[in-house]
Amino acid sequence: MADHKIDKELEEFRQVMEVPSTFEDGFNWTALLGAIFIALLMVPGALYMGLLAGVENIGAASQWVTVILFIEVAKRAQKNLKKAEIFVLFFMAGAAMGMPFNGLLWNQFFVRSDAAIANGIADQLPNWFAPSPDSASYDARTFFHVDWLPAIGLVIFGTFFSQLSSMVLGYGLFRVASDIEKLPFPMAPIGAQGIMALAEDADEKAIKDDEERWRWRVFSIGGAIGLTFGLLYLLVPTLTGALTGKPIQIFPIPFSDWTPKTGDYLSAVATGVSWDLGNLIFGMVLPFFAMVGSFIGLVVMFCLNPILYKFRILHTWNPGDSTVSTMYFNNVDFYFSFGIGMALAIAIAGFVQVVKSVRSAKREKGEKSATLASVGALPEGRGDIRTWIVLVTYLFITMTYITVSGWLVDWHRGIMAVLFFLGFVYTPLISYVTARLEGMVGQVVEIPFIREATLILSGYKGVACWFLPIPIANYGMMTVFYKQCELTGTKFTSIWKTQIVLFPIILISSIFFMNFIWSLNEVPSAVYPYADEIWKLQAENACIMYSSTLGEYSIFEEAFNVLYILIGTVFGSLLFFGLSALGAPVMMVYGVVRGIGNVMPHWIIPQFIGALIGRYYFQKRLGLKWRQYIPVVSAGFACGMGLITTVGVGITFLSKAAIPLPF
User: Which of 32, 214, 259, 490 is deepest in the core (most CB within 10 A)?
Assistant: First the structure.
């Protein structure tokens, strides 16, 4: 990496935190109470808010709510929680929000959706995806029915093996990227800063200088903002929806749609804005040039779409179409294939960066530094395991996935070849490349549609192959989590023990509340405006790919265009390497390439505004401290939103669960 120019923005992140010299076991049975608290109170809130407003940060909010509650209880018990204990509690609270059965709500919708029926997919869906539409379970709106047992069994299988593989194999890649190759992981401190804020408050005796407790004050500011905004954005529609059946929205959910009105001036361009304040704060948290790049890409798309419409490439769109219709039509006409090409360009750039860094490291440190022989001195007390355990686990998990998937499709030869390729070739390759890229610049690389392409080429006829538990994953993303664990001085064994204890809790809470929410109202419906609007688009887009293996003409053949894929690949590659040659920041380069596509401006615009405010107002006043402050503000905001959400959902459930008396 010596021949690469140092990216100033990345350096800001690298200077935030350092690895401690000692590690502690943060697992204790008290933390189990936190997981149960989450499972009973926050899981239903997250499910409900996801359907109502598409809010995805409730999981993070639940973590902060739980940790703060336990810190306050510990204070009154004259006990201080250590950083490792807080990190494990934080992780346990987040893991308890895992909702493996969340997909069942989507399954029951998709099997009966207009898109699946119109494309001839509904009657070919296997029973381990969802029961046939004539099942009595749909009238009763319940998953506790014998017809759902195959689908539930497959979810349990997938949940267990995905957690096992991500924990163990992610750890192995962390060892390579951090211990052997000494990569800096510039984005890891973002997630660790909030933990440090709570640790400071928990250990009040160790804090002599009030200035050292800045994190807690900043966290409180974010919490107040989250409470205030959540009251207007989420609590009002939640309560009015529970009491009247029709939510009253002060701010439109999920967004304001201006596309029908702007279509006369911006042909085939989706326009609108999301009023979720979280987008503004999210734009401040992420690197500034990443947001600039995304906005530049969006502007290019605003200019490109009317040209494509004029030349009849975007030929399906009609003036007056909504955002959802515009996105779907543009996807079929052009962006499905062009997006594959752009994603390929990002993947190529990622591989090039990794190859350059490996060569540079070899020149700088010598060949020996790039071999496993350099594993030698591991940090004492971190809780590491032997390398052979990682390798055996990988072989066992991959072969189990292959065996189960092969049995579900009667050992179809083409599918079996795909399973071995994805499990033993693609997954280790892409995981290693991502681990290095995360360690260098905080980016993830994926080869787009590799799973889809291999399934299409397998020769399989039908749609069952799309729902197999295929051994494909990118474990490189877990390396950031382990780096955060290391930065907070937490033993890795704490995390592994936590996962074992949590597994049954996650399964029980997820299926119970999923069933309860479905029993309240049909999903999606007018009661859940986000799901009612977005799920239809998602179903239509999903049918594009699923129809490719039906063995007859399908919407996939209309959307798949080799020429557009090549154009996207060439254009994306030229753009990426051109900007890099001009010295553009790494984050901006990725942002531009990713921003040019079939993306909604509804979220990008407020994120960009947040980035501008953070860069040219707060960072000018606070300097490098702003990079330390804003992740904590974001954590506090999520906490405030979580608290107000819990109140609203609790009232809703009480009102729905009440049994009217006959007199």
Answer: 490
- The amino acid occupying position 440 is M
Query: Using omega within 30 degrees of 0 as the cis cutoff, is the peptide bond preceding 524 cis?
Result: yes
Residue 210 is classified by DSSP as G
Amino acid occupying residue 283: G
Which one is predicted more confidently, 574 or 28? 574
Asked if residue 397 belongs to a domain, the reply is yes
Which H helix or E strand runs over 257?
Answer: strand 256-257
**Considering the domain boundaries, does residue 244 fall inside one?**
yes
Domain count, the chain: 1
The DSSP result for 112-150, as a single string, is: T-HHHHHTT-GGG--TTT---TT-HHHHHT-S-SGGGHH
What CA–CA distances, in Å, run from 177 to 156, 245, 445, 609? 31, 52, 15, 35
Tracing tokens 């997954």 back to the chain, one arrives at: 427
Flag the least confident range among 413-417, 440-444, 564-568. 440-444
Q: Which residues contact 574 (CB under 8 A, 6 or more apart)?
A: none
pLDDT tens, position by position, 572-584: 888 878 877 777 7
What is the distance between the alpha carbons of residues 181 and 440, in angstroms, rounded to a whole number? 10
CA nearest to 656, candidates 529, 527, 510: 527
Q: Residue 142, exposed/middle/buried by CB under 10 A (0-12, 13-18, 19+)?
A: middle
Each residue's pLDDT tens digit, 449-471 = 788 888 888 889 989 999 999 99
Residue span of the structural domain in which 639 resides: 25-366+383-651
